[in-house]
């Protein structure tokens, strides 16, 4: 009785949590651009100036600046990742005016050093003194002064021009802008004649490093060409989502009914575990801050298929053992033991496939692999361990000893 | 309900199945070399434009409109709610914008677009990438199954899985169904499912081997037959449920997933059959050949 009570309690609490959290969870699951509209572009980067090469740092910096630009247009959570040696993938979901965003993204990064000389009082820094291309490529780096404070050392190509500017601006500010955003406005301390300068005033090493990277980016801007693009209209994405959700709901209901009718008590427990499985998967998605896309849904469906299979394997095995004349509780024990090995072997082979796809694949294939891996691991936790725990509680309560509860007819049982 | 196949000789039935499978593979090779695959733009570069429209659109007018726009060669299909255009060239951003705005202006203000543009280089890379993935994953499976079971199981499992994948590809080639990235996803899913399916049966064979005394050929045959029939209810129930899910997706799911779910549905059915009629008998064949050496008895890991 105690065990049955525990079972009921655990199930009630679990469902309470599921019902309570599901609306919020569903609402905050990030949908990919194929489900709510948006676009994905794969850029290939080339140096804008001739003879330059695309370095890892410059690619990363470019990606960062793309992300900043996208954020500035007000889109929600753009995903910008670098791929290989010269590619950047940008995914932006839920944009109303994709063309505008794309135009902004494609512009090379613009680094400017500006001063306020000759500007009206409230115009701020209006005079452009130096451009990104005036700096020696890759020369900006973080150094330290005698107090061990970080400084940024920069180097320009044209010594005389720099000497003229710095002489004119001694005691005044020289502000650093990237894409019209002011990053820093250091004061020129003295005339600089050898073409190098240090910028101080950065509080942390990380901050200094970032500014140095930005200056290097500005010195070697990359031009981006679109190699692949996918854009989905918002209404179309919405429609995809609704249709797919409908298919999922119909399929789920029928599968749950099937399990219930075919496997009775283990089927009932399987239903509970399947629901928990789906919920945990969504929760993990939310925690990983992952985006649900069509490839993800494909993997999700495979996951549900395998989850159902896990339950079927266990339930069938228990049926077999009962038919062989074992008592319910010993049938459960040996059924569990035998099905465990089967399920684990099948799952590990699937994990191998998922891992290979994750490491080799790009874009769609990778998206598939992530969900596939997650669903297999969660499946082991819910449909193997949780299901087993529930079954044990129920069976050991001693209230369900009739073979018919397990979908076995009395006439099928062989005498030992 | 319980499927009664107790006395069915799966191993014997496998002989014609093997011959049939070989014929199908040859037919597949023939079809692939003659017709190739109907690649979507994901694998051959170009632009695919899917427009969902709120009112029926005159086909001739759209064609006239497209001819006027000069975007290069294209193919074009239209349904009641959907117009699909495939351009051979990768559209530039400007062309894309023009197409969208002109179409909206001329035909349907509330038209929604899904546009994919793929460059040749990326297209080739994606295809190779997917292929490598499948091959490396196969090697991984061989290694794992060889360690956990034995190499004969590994060979049989991979042979069966590659057969299933190849059959689905063949069907797509024969019926000129479009092969895009989602198709690759379907193949991956099928492979995942197919291994799952095969491993379950092999596991039972391994288990039954522990108690079997293999004196004659027929003893081995009996072990295989028994193992298949013991897992048959599970095999059928699983394939029915998962195939039902795939069918739901095909019937109600979004347009983008149609080809995926179709490939998945075919792969599931072929996969389930292949685990029973190809993988297991193939193992039987390999193992029987090894009989004279009397392999050491299987031990449970």
TrEMBL record, chain A:
NCBIfam families the record matches: 2A0604s01, secD
Task: Please list the GO biological process terms of this entry.
Answer: intracellular protein transmembrane transport; protein targeting; protein transport by the Sec complex
Q: Does the keyword Nucleotide-binding apply?
A: no
Task of the protein: Part of the Sec protein translocase complex. Interacts with the SecYEG preprotein conducting channel. SecDF uses the proton motive force (PMF) to complete protein translocation after the ATP-dependent function of SecA.
Q: Annotated Gene Ontology MF terms?
A: protein-transporting ATPase activity
The chain positions of domain Protein export membrane protein SecD/SecF C-terminal read 227-393
Which intervals hold domain Protein translocase subunit SecDF P1?
A: 61-116
Q: Which InterPro entries match?
A: SecD (IPR005791), SecD/SecF_arch_bac (IPR022813), SecD_1st (IPR048631), SecD_SecF_C (IPR048634), SecD_SecF_C_bact (IPR055344), SecDF_P1_head (IPR054384)
Q: Which SUPFAM superfamilies match?
A: Multidrug efflux transporter AcrB transmembrane domain
Which of UniProt's keywords are assigned here? Cell membrane, Membrane, Protein transport, Translocation, Transmembrane, Transmembrane helix, Transport
Membrane-spanning residues where?
245-263, 268-288, 294-313, 342-361, 367-391
Which subcellular locations apply to this protein? Answer: Cell membrane
Mind telling me what this protein is named?
A: Protein translocase subunit SecD
Q: How does it sit in the membrane?
A: Multi-pass membrane protein
- Subunit relationships: Forms a complex with SecF. Part of the essential Sec protein translocation apparatus which comprises SecA, SecYEG and auxiliary proteins SecDF. Other proteins may also be involved.
Lineage top rank: taxon: Bacteria
Alphabetized PANTHER family for the sequence:
PROTEIN TRANSLOCASE SUBUNIT SECD, PROTEIN-EXPORT MEMBRANE PROTEIN SEC
Q: Is Repressor among the key words of this record?
A: no
Organism from which the protein derives? Cohnella fermenti
What Gene3D superfamilies does UniProt report for this protein, alphabetically?
3.30.1360.200, 3.30.70.3400, Multidrug efflux transporter AcrB transmembrane domain (1.20.1640.10)
What the entry lists under HAMAP family is as follows: SecD_B
Q: Name one Pfam family in it.
A: SecD_1st
Q: Name one GO cellular component term.
A: plasma membrane
State the similarity comment. Belongs to the SecD/SecF family. SecD subfamily.
From TrEMBL, chain B:
Keywords on record: Cell membrane, Membrane, Protein transport, Translocation, Transmembrane, Transmembrane helix, Transport
Q: Which residues cross the membrane?
A: 21-41, 130-147, 154-175, 181-202, 235-253, 259-286
Keyword DNA repair listed? no
Query: Where does this one sit in the cell?
Result: Cell membrane
Q: Give the record's GO biological process terms.
A: intracellular protein transmembrane transport; protein targeting; protein transport by the Sec complex
Q: SUPFAM superfamilies from the entry?
A: Multidrug efflux transporter AcrB transmembrane domain (SSF82866)
Matches recorded under Pfam families: Sec_GG, SecD_SecF_C
What are the GO MF terms of this UniProt record?
protein-transporting ATPase activity
Kindly give the membrane topology term recorded for this protein: Multi-pass membrane protein
| Superkingdom classification of source | Bacteria
Q: Please state every residue range assigned to the domain named Protein export membrane protein SecD/SecF C-terminal.
A: 101-288
Q: Name one GO cellular component term.
A: plasma membrane
Protein family per UniProt: In the C-terminal section; belongs to the SecD/SecF family. SecF subfamily.
The annotated subunit structure for this chain is:
Forms a complex with SecD. Part of the essential Sec protein translocation apparatus which comprises SecA, SecYEG and auxiliary proteins SecDF. Other proteins may also be involved.
Biological role = Part of the Sec protein translocase complex. Interacts with the SecYEG preprotein conducting channel. SecDF uses the proton motive force (PMF) to complete protein translocation after the ATP-dependent function of SecA.
| Record-given protein name | Protein-export membrane protein SecF
Q: Species name for this entry?
A: Cohnella fermenti
């Amino acid at each position: 009785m105690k065990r049955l009570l525990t079972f009921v309690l655990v199930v009630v609490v679990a469902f309470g949590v599921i019902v309570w959290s599901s609306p919020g969870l569903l609402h905050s699951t990030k949908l990919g651009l194929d489900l709510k509209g948006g676009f994905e572009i794969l850029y290939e980067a080339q140096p804008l100036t001739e003879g330059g090469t695309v370095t890892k740092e410059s690619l990363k910096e470019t990606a960062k600046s793309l992300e900043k630009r996208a954020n500035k247009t007000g889109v929600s959570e753009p995903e910008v990742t670098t791929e290989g040696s010269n590619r950047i993938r940008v995914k932006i979901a839920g944009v109303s005016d994709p063309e505008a965003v794309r135009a902004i993204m494609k512009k090379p990064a613009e680094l400017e050093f500006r001063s306020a000389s000759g500007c009206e009082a409230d115009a701020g820094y209006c005079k452009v003194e130096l451009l990104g291309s005036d700096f020696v490529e890759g020369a900006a780096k973080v150094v330290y002064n005698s107090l061990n404070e970080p400084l940024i050392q920069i180097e320009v190509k044209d010594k005389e021009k720099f000497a003229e500017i710095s002489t004119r601006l001694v005691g005044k500010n020289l502000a650093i802008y990237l894409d019209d955003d002011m990053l820093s406005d250091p004061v020129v301390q003295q005339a600089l004649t050898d073409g190098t300068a240090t910028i101080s005033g950065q509080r942390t090493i990380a901050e200094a490093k970032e500014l140095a990277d930005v200056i290097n980016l500005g010195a070697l801007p990359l031009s981006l060409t679109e190699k692949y693009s996918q854009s989905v209209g918002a209404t179309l994405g919405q429609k995809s989502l609704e249709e797919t959700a409908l298919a999922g709901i119909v399929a789920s209901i029928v599968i749950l009914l099937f399990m219930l009718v075919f496997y009775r008590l283990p089927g009932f427990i399987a239903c509970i575990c399947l629901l928990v499985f789906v919920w945990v998967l969504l929760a993990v998605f939310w925690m990983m801050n992952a985006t649900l896309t069509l490839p993800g849904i494909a993997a999700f469906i495979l996951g549900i298929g395998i989850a159902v299979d896990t339950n079927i394997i266990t339930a069938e095995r228990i049926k077999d053992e009962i038919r062989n004349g074992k008592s319910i509780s010993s049938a459960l024990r040996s059924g569990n033991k035998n099905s465990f090995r089967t399920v684990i072997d099948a799952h590990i082979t699937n994990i191998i496939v998922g891992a290979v796809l994750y490491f080799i694949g790009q874009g769609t294939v990778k998206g598939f692999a992530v969900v596939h891996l997650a669903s297999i691991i969660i499946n082991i936790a819910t449909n193997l361990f949780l299901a087993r725990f529930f079954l044990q509680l129920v069976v050991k309560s001693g209230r369900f000893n009739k073979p018919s509860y397990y979908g076995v007819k009395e006439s099928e049982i062989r005498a030992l | 309900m319980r499927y009664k196949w107790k006395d069915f000789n799966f191993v014997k039935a496998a002989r014609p199945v093997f011959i049939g499978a070989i014929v199908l593979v040859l037919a597949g090779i023939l079809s692939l070399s003659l017709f190739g695959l109907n690649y979507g733009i994901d694998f051959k570069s170009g632009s695919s434009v899917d427009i969902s429209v709120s009112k029926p659109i005159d086909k001739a007018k759209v064609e006239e409109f497209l001819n006027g726009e000069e975007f290069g060669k294209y193919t074009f299909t239209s349904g009641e709610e959907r117009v699909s255009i495939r351009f051979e060239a990768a559209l530039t951003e400007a062309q894309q914008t023009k197409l969208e705005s002109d179409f909206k202006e001329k035909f349907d203000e509330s038209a929604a677009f899904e546009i994919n543009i793929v460059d040749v280089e990326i297209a080739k890379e994606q295809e190779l990438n997917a292929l490598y993935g499948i091959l490396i994953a196969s090697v991984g499976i061989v290694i794992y199954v060889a360690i956990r079971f034995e190499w004969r199981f590994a060979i049989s499992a991979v042979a069966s899985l590659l057969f299933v994948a190849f059959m689905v590809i063949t069907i797509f080639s024969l019926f000129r169904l479009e092969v895009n990235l989602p198709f690759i996803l379907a193949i991956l899913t099928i492979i995942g499912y197919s291994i799952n399916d095969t491993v379950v049966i092999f596991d039972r064979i391994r288990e039954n081997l522990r108690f079997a005394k293999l004196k004659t050929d027929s003893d081995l045959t009996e072990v295989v037959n028994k193992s298949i029939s013991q897992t048959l209810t599970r095999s059928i129930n699983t394939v029915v449920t998962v195939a039902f899910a795939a069918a739901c997706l095909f019937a109600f799911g979004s347009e983008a997933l149609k080809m995926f779910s179709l490939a998945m549905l075919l792969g599931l059915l072929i996969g389930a059959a292949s685990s029973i009629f190809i993988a297991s008998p193939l193992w039987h064949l390999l193992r029987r050949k090894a009989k004279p050496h009397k392999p050491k008895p299987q031990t449970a890991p």
